[in-house]
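Hypothesis: this fold can be encoded by more than one sequence.
Test: take the structure tokens below, design a sequence, compare later.
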């Protein structure tokens, strides 16, 4: 005779540590959470595309507001008309200021669209701002004065003032101004005005009379473990007889 095989452990229905069944409202990764994640991804993609298209407006504003660098040609070379002018630096500063303004407006709009925030929204803000800045930079230089300075100087003639190409000298700092401003402003708005998670409420069990149950704050005065239990009379012992 052989001993019967021990059956595998079967979890009891009331076992507290067993995983909730699939499809239960307590199981992780429910359909509602999946729909929420897909909605956040769609919103992040829409934000990226919208900010990239908004880069066209930034490029046009930069082309309109950026100061021009005047050039003049003589018999041998093309020279700056005002050698002490700051128009070249002004073009970079104009682009950065416009990019910062676009970043603030974009962050405020995204926060009003979805106050809860989310990683896809922040990624969409950063990526869309970067792509929008690149679009603005390339559009402004393309629509601005030609980059062939020598041909332009020959076309206008000797001694005639003409505009230098519209350029960015600090390209890295200029194209990062928009996404950095958008992320900082969005983070600040979320921290100040975003929804708060409810704080957990602590509840202590109470007896029927409103007092704490016995043993909740240590042994009672008449228990066997306390001083009274050690020195006091034994339970059930009567008074000493003479």
């Amino acid at each position: 005779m052989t001993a019967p095989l021990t059956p595998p452990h079967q979890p009891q229905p009331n076992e507290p540590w067993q995983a909730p069944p699939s499809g239960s409202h307590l199981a992780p990764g429910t359909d509602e959470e999946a729909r929420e994640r897909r909605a956040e991804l769609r919103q992040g993609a829409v934000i990226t595309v919208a900010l990239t298209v908004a880069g066209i407006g930034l490029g046009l504003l930069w082309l309109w507001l950026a100061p021009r660098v005047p050039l003049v040609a003589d018999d041998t070379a093309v020279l700056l008309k005002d050698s002490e002018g700051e128009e070249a630096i002004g073009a970079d500063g104009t682009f950065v200021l416009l990019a910062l303004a676009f970043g603030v407006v974009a962050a405020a709009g995204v926060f009003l669209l979805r106050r809860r925030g989310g990683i896809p929204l922040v990624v969409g803000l950063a990526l869309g701002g970067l792509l929008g800045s690149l679009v603005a930079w390339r559009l402004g230089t393309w629509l601005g004065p030609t980059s062939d300075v020598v041909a332009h100087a020959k076309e206008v003639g000797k001694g005639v003032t003409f505009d230098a190409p519209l350029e960015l000298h600090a390209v890295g700092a200029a194209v990062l101004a928009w996404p950095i401003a958008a992320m900082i402003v969005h983070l600040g708005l979320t921290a100040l005005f975003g929804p708060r998670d409810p704080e957990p409420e602590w509840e202590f069990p109470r007896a029927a009379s409103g007092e704490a149950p016995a043993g909740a704050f240590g042994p009672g005065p008449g228990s066997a473990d306390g001083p009274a239990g050690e020195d006091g009379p034994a339970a059930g012992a009567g008074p000493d007889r003479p």
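DSSP finds six helices and three strands in the chain. The helical segments are 31-65, 87-113, 119-143, 149-156, 171-193, 227-231.
Hypothesis status: open.
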